[in-house]
Amino acid sequence: MNLRSSVILVTAILIAAATGIVVVAQDHTHEKSASSTQAQNNIPSSSVTAGFTSQTLFQPPAERNMPDDEFGKTIKHGQEIFENTKNIAPQYVGNASNLRCSSCHLDAGRLANSAPLWAAYVSYPSYRSKNKHVNTYAERLQGCFKYSMNGKAPPLGDPVLVALESYSYWLASGAPIDPKIPGRGYPPVSHPLAGDYRRGQQVYEQHCALCHGADGAGQTDARNQANFPALWGAKSFNWGAGMSSIKNAAGFIKANMPLGLGGSLSDQEAWDVATFMDSHERPQDPRFNGSIAQTRAQHHDSADELYGVVVNGHLLGQGIVAAKPDSGGEKQ
Fold it and tell me: Mean pLDDT throughout 176-191?
């Protein structure tokens, strides 16, 4: 067995082990490593995210402390929607999508630096430049369905939104109202060099393809539940989602990927593989106005976004194409 094969084998074993740990945690209690006293009293705990500076992070309540009453039933329903989105709320998820809420918000929305729900809940209402008005938390949830799920937004007051908001509220029990609460969103990632497609492709093949597939289509189980989400193509998030920003994708990847090995990639590797991922076609931005150039100018006018940019001879932003993903190339 040569060195490359050995590395791939060891990586596969590590990822499989990490996946088992995550599945067990999600299927049982979502307990954190903090002491039971901390969990029961929502005491912030010192925590270190691999590759990042140690900081004090809020500790959400343990699942066993979920209220045993009618409100608790709604909280539990919100958790179930969060983890099995398409099976429970299929009317609001794109037909082809294999994503669920927990695809981007790991450990059932608990994990710091993975856009945890407890941090998001205490950060709203808030002005968002994306839609240029002050958003309530429920409106923020609507955007997740519209863009990340490539579906449609549940109407305000819909039981799906009520359940998800109740679950978020409960996870945030005891958290301070603070839009800058440590652990919110994805950590910023520096990149000494501009993101590079070819370098990113190498990182993807070495660290990501085993779970997400060489074609980026992800993997599903016998129930069509996404074990590993699609990163591009018809099953993935659309061009309006936050992950279509290289900056956001690099932050998530650096902190959390490969699964169970967050922080193992360098900043440059995270930025490069995010560039590679976002250099592929995906469903159209729902805000598309008939012109890719105008849609880019209105909604994607950033060096961190590739919508409306030619990559490998293809103008990104046309929506899903039949051709297979390009095997290599650079931004033009």
Answer: 95
Q: Which domain holds residue 23?
A: 1-30
Is residue 262, in this structure, part of any structural domain at all?
yes
- What is the per-residue pLDDT across 10-56, written as a single tens digit (0 to 9) for each? 444 444 444 443 333 344 444 433 333 333 334 344 344 444 555 78
Could you give the angle at the alpha carbon of 180 between the alpha carbons of 176 and 183, nearest 5°? 85
Measured distance CA(117)–CA(106) in Å, rounded: 10
* 147's tokens: 């863009």
* Residue 185 belongs to some domain of the structure: no
Distance between CA 236 and CA 96 in Å, rounded? 8
CATH number for position 111: 1.10.760.10
Does residue 104 sit in the same domain as residue 159?
yes
Cβ(256)–Cβ(162) below 8 Å: no
Task: Write the pLDDT tens digit of every residue in 273-315.
Answer: 999 999 999 999 999 999 999 999 999 999 999 999 999 999 9
Sign of CA dihedral 240, 113, 179, 275: negative
For the chain, how many structural domains are there in total?
3
